[in-house]
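Study this:
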Amino acid sequence: MNRGTIRLLIADDDDGDRMQLRRLIRACGLVCEIDEATDLNEAEAACAARDYDCAIIDYRMPGGNGLEGIVALRERHPLLPIVMVTGQGDELIATEAIKLGAADYVPKSQLSQSYIAHVIQSALRKAELERIVEDQREELERFGHVLAHDLKTPIHQIRYLVDFIERDLEEGNHEQLRINRDRLLATAGRMEDLINTLQHYMMTDKPIDIAAIPLDGAVEGCLSNLAGEIAARDAAIACGELPMARGNLPLLIQLFQNLVGNSLKYCGTARPEVSISAETAGNEVTVSIADNGIGVPPAQQHAIFQPFRRLHRQSEIEGTGLGLAICRKIVERHGGSIWCESGPSGGSVFRFTLSAV
């Protein structure tokens, strides 16, 4: 389906009514792919086989009425916007349809080009709001998990170490006291890093200033911030000539830093090798960051950009699970997209798009 095309399902057992709806939708200027169903069973089968942006269901059809169809479809596809149409114009039916989750209710006598366009666009907006609310709900649940687990864990560790420090003080074991003190400071530092990362993640929704910037300047800032880690791993960083792009310099430095830092962290036992390049096509710049690391399984290449989604246990590789989620937020705030691919010779390739100058 082309970008901007609406995938629409019309479920109505009357051939003439389906034809009229199709004609009105075509005439109103909306770009749609339209499938048809003549009863609820066909409608359910169609929705099971394809993802639709909106479904228009008649109230009276073989296999049950439209209210039953709303319930059945909403159970399996809770975010699918459903518009009920009927020739009866019964307010009680309309009220019940809305209660059951219909986005709108339309008497067939009121159908027109402008009205059907308004109804479909309104249903799509409502569905988008529902998706946003659902995403926020899931994000809050993940935040609840990290607060309950990732913050409690260092707190328990701190209490555990305090007990050992008290014992060391009583026994006068100064060498072990220094060891446990250092462990305590390291645990507190990790806890502070997590809190700072959570705060940064929440702040990436604020308005930003966009200007024409040289991407090589963003990379220079990134490599300067990571100089210690690069030296410690003896990493080889190669960067080709990068173009100008529209963006916010501090956020793009953070973006490069998170992606290059991931390449250093997930390199396994090999010497890290990271290559940064960019291509301009039309009004879009695509930046690529390739590495020779352990890679990301194809099935996980989309999920890794979700908050707190980690592929490895924290005991294996430290992290908050927010680094790539922050990258996604930064790119989306610039109006771009970000994704991950497997490298041709192993490792991973992270790509993101920005507006060209």
